[in-house]
Amino acid sequence: MTSGLAALEARLADELEFLQLPAPRWTPALEREGQPVVDVAIIGAGMTGLAAAAALVQRGLSVVAYDEAPAGLEGPWATTARMETLRSPKQLAGPALGIPSLTFRAWFEAQFGRAEWEALDKIPRLQWMDYLRWYREVLRLPVLNGHRITDIEPRADGLVVLRLETEGHAMRAWARRVVVATGRAGLGGPALPAFAEALPRSRWAHSSDDNDYAALAGLRVGIVGAGASAMDSAATALEAGAAQVHLLVRRADLPRVNKGKGAGNPGFVVGYARLSDDWKWRIRHYINTQQVPPPRNSTQRVSRHANAHFHLGVAIESVSERRGALEVRTSAGPIELDFLIFATGFKVDWRQRPMLRHIAPCIRVWKDRYAPPAGDDDAELAESPDLGPAFEFQPRAGADCPGLDRIHCLSYPATLSLGVITGDIPAISEGALQLTDRLAALLYAEDIEHHFARMAAYAEPEILGDEWVAEPLPPPPSSPSSR
Ligand SMILES: Cc1cc2nc3c(=O)[nH]c(=O)nc-3n(C[C@H](O)[C@H](O)[C@H](O)COP(=O)(O)OP(=O)(O)OC[C@H]3O[C@@H](n4cnc5c(N)ncnc54)[C@H](O)[C@@H]3O)c2cc1C
Questions:
Q1: Structure pTM?
Q2: What is the dihedral of CA 13, 14, 20, 25, to 10 degrees?
Q3: pLDDT-derived band of residue 104, with 50, 70 and 90 as boundaries?
Q4: CA-nearest residue, atom 9 of ligand 1
């Protein structure tokens, strides 16, 4: 009898077999220039890319997921994230696609047992990455690491050309459909205040940068923002020996309630995408303005240090470098610091994503089509892509970009169009499964001639003709008058 992970993997193999997964490949095999054309290429093999790849493979489609990161270091978890544990509750099914043995819980209990599971508070960050590595391995997902997509060229002939770089070589690949699963900053990058860009780069970092926190030892560090990443950056700086850490928070108070979490229910997950534009904007704008509080444990990880200082109601007005320090002028007076960390989130900014340069001018964003009610302006929402029902980019009025609708977006900026299925743990399976169904349907319809011809050519008999003997009808009964 096997135990631990081996037993779980045997159980998973049974479950997949019982569910007849994965389905056999059913789409036609195509080639271009001697290379196979995949049905779907995914850009990004973080949690979202993996979940999408798994769902697409299960549906019998040919898939490849490219990631520029080395294997096992995709996404923020083991690279730029600095929290001790995930924010998400441990019991969420995450990318399990409805299969119990694929959940984090199954993976955890298989190794550490039920009692340890009961004792676990939240999932340690690096353990979550270990789980994602196992998920990829156990499902044998088709991921190519060290492959950076540098350009996406949709074409009128039903194919998309991807240009990529790997080990210093440039190459091309072909796909019928492309999924952009590039994460939180997936269509842009850090959102920075204008004054940051005027400062010497040695004086500041964004919270998502691969910053050397050890170099902050002995320094006075300012953290701009008060969300989860602000707390994680502050705590990391303090633990690295920063002399002082000052959190500079524009708001007079920290948000206390995570409204997005309160909205979570199956209706919100599956029904949001069909809401009217007005409701979508209203919901997302409300969540944006209410803001998401930092997790309690992350905040306490900062406040337990005597040299951590929370300054609320302090808006930065300007920053300049003077006499070897940063002179920061704020609405509450000046403060002198050595280094600033901007925990100011991300924004859609096509210039920060060179791979999108061909298609960015064609892509319709919400502000091209929708005007919010007076007072509800929201720069983040205005720049969000206005996606179609198959998560596809749609052309701006007048844009000439054949094949743009072959590029599908499953990353955070899609949230205004699609809801919470675009990359966070709670609903990532829904996102992957919904996208997969839409793509399978599109590919089927595109190839309908081929599928009809296959049906017509199909000739496997189910009965052989020797199962019965044909007889003439019995003679009709004689009529009473003829008796
Ligand atoms: C610090 C932090 C903590 C978070 N904590 C939680 C949490 O507790 N719970 C929760 O639900 N959500 C959390 N999130 C939000 C979300 O779940 C994560 O951002 C998650 O990583 C999203 O997965 P993803 O696959 O969409 O993106 P990512 O994990 O970011 O993966 C995107 C991948 O795309 C690759 N890529 C990008 N561009 C290219 C290119 N041109 N070519 C090839 N590859 C490319 C990158 O290398 C990367 O591996 C957190 C986010 C952050 C940043």
A1: 0.96
A2: 20
A3: very high
A4: 88
d(CA 332, CA 401): 50
Q: How far is the CA of 292 from the centre of ligand 1 (A)?
A: 18
As a 3-state breakdown, the chain gives helix, strand, coil percent values, each rounded to 5, of: 40, 20, 40
Torsion sign (Cα): 413, 420, 207, 74 = negative
129 within 8 A of 78, measured Cβ to Cβ: yes
Structure-token pair, residue 466:
């020797």
| pLDDT tens for each residue of 340-361 | 999 999 999 998 999 999 999 9
pLDDT at position 481 over 70:
no
Ligand 1 in contact with 81 (CB < 6 A)? yes
Residue 449 has pLDDT above 80, yes or no: yes
> In Å, what is the CA distance from 373 to each residue of 73, 282, 396?
43, 9, 22
Residue 430, φ and ψ in degrees, nearest 5: -60, -45
Residue 261 pLDDT grade (very low, low, confident, very high; cuts 50, 70, 90): confident
Q: Is the CB of 75 under 6 A from ligand 1?
A: yes
pLDDT tops 80 at residue 1: no
